[in-house]
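3.2 Worked example (two chains)
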Amino acid sequence: MSHIHIVVDTSAQLTKEMFEKHPNLHSVSMKVRIGEEEWPEDEISNAELFRRSKECKQHPQTSQPAPGDFIEICKPLLEAGKEIIVIAVSGGLSGTAQGARSVAKMLDEKRMHVIDSSTASIGMVQLAKGALAMADSGMETSVIISKLLAMVEATHTLILVDTLDYLYKGGRIGGAAALFGTIFQIRPVIHLIDGKVAVLDKVRTKQRAVTRMLDELKRYNELEYIGIGNVDAPLEEEMIVERVKEIYPDVPILHAGIGSVLGAHLGPGMIGVVFQEKIK
């Protein structure tokens, strides 16, 4: 087994099979809360989250992994002489990367390295897969980190939401933007720029928003993969998959798992597209 260990937060939605295949892969849990009740992300589905939120009439909240969660995994590995690469969800959605960096300062900054993925879900999965493959090949940590940062730079994330309420109540956009969008029934196409949530474009219907999102995708010619996921919108995801296949018949299309933390931020009806340009 490689002396390099990879730690990823649960918003990536890594599969059980990945953990079974890679003993040097670890996960720290983000959490979801409604009122006084709190769950580790993987213990509550989006459907259950929204059902409970509706019943309680309270908006779901999220929290990043506690410092102790990172310490519990990372301290024994560092004491055993291992190196650690943490791959965290976009800093625009969570303070996970910042929290991990604080732990690295406490434990060992020279052997615990933190990468803000500037994306989420399948984008993080692909980064983790790349890191594991490079570690297994015997590549040095510094080289792996350099290549992962190039992958981060080449990865793009587009998001279409049904309502701005979740982004607003979660503190990801301002009240004026949310009010404007609600009054004028704006469908914003959102993207992550340097890991921050920003509006790419504003259109009036969901159909036009999907077209705008696909038009943005068409700007890129050579892609490694395209990941597509949804929150409570499976039929719309299927439709987008078919349209993407027509545009990129030779590019792998992957399903992007969307956990309850992203669900709490983006709300039901959300469609996400994550893709990576080929690195030359």
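3.2.1 Second chain
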Amino acid sequence: MDWLSRLFEMMPVHGRLDLRCSYGAPWRIEQGPGNANEIPYHAVLAGSAVLDDPAGGRPLHLKAGDIVLLPGNPRHIMHDGRGAAPLKVRNRASLNFMISENPGSDQRLDLLCGHFSIAPPELVGLVVLMRGETATDRLGGRAMLNALSTAMFALVLRFASETGDMSQGLLALAGHPRLAPVVAAMFNEPARAWTLPEFAQLASMSRATLARQFQEKLGRSPSDLLTDIRMTLAANELRKSSISTGAVAEAAGYLSEAAFQRAFKSHMGITPAQWRKAAQTSATVDELELTKSAEVMSDVGSTSAGA
């Protein structure tokens, strides 16, 4: 199984459509900062928009078909680029989502805004489906839109990982021809007793170069990423009451249950037993799981994709 499929298998992601915006210039949208476990997305159906870089870099110009994800849920501003005072907007509820519109008639923007809580032709088809669902208020529309949002998240990450132009994040590692085998090995065999020399051999580079590349692109070491993957896998396995903690420890690559319990508590903040018990009520686990998922997804890196 490829690394991206393994990531989604280990870390559930749910999509939600919040707004469909229909604005004429001048307009301005300001959102965030929001919950750390949510990743906002914006999909431009028609018109164009300017997204100010939350990090202070150059603005990003978006056109119809573009989709942007913002890991970390930062405060962000989108506008028409004119700098004029925006027209007043009016929000009205439909059956399945909220519609936000203004009275402007010039250069209208049609935009989908939503969140995720953790190949271009496919994206085109998906966005067309979402546009159709938001054009008519039909029974089951909310479930359909949320499912399409989740699928779009996976497709955007796939597309971004294939472009190879990410500078930071997990996608930057996976898009690097010599580092990609290391990422794939971690996801495919997380229980293996990997060593830094083995990872360096897979990448055909020295250990020092490999460690530097991980630090530059991810801000973490190879062993840190491997631990994240192992703990995510273990957290999912602990939900299954039929699997013993010892078996989960072995699946996560730990030779002893005691070592696994220490590592799990250090990483997750609670013991495996507490995690498993909380799963019976789900609320505590969901909160912790979403927080950890958000931390892993922040390693993916900000990305945009043109559909």
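3.3 Remarks
Residues 249 and 260 are 6 Å apart (CA to CA).
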